[in-house]
Amino acid sequence: MDEMTNLHEVHTIQPGDVVKGRITKIEDGQAFVDVGYKYEGVLPIAEVSSLRIEKVSDVLQAGDEVEVKVKSVNDEAGTLIVSKRAVDAEQAWGRLEKLYQAGEIFDVVIVDVVKGGLVADIGVRGFIPASLVERHFVEDFSSYKGQTLAVKIAEFDPEQKKVVLSHKAVVEEQEEREKQHVITSLQAGQILTGTVQRLTDFGVFVNIGGVDGLVHISELSHQHVKHPSEVVKEGDAVQVKVLKVDPAAGRISLSIRAAQKGPWESVNASFQPGAIIDGTVKRLANFGAFVEVAPGIEGLVHISQISNRHIANPAEVLEVGQSVKVKVLDVNAQEKRISLSIREAESAKNDKEVEKYVEKQSTSGTGVTLGDLFGDLFKQNK
Question: Model's pTM, two decimal places?
Answer without folding.
Answer: 0.53
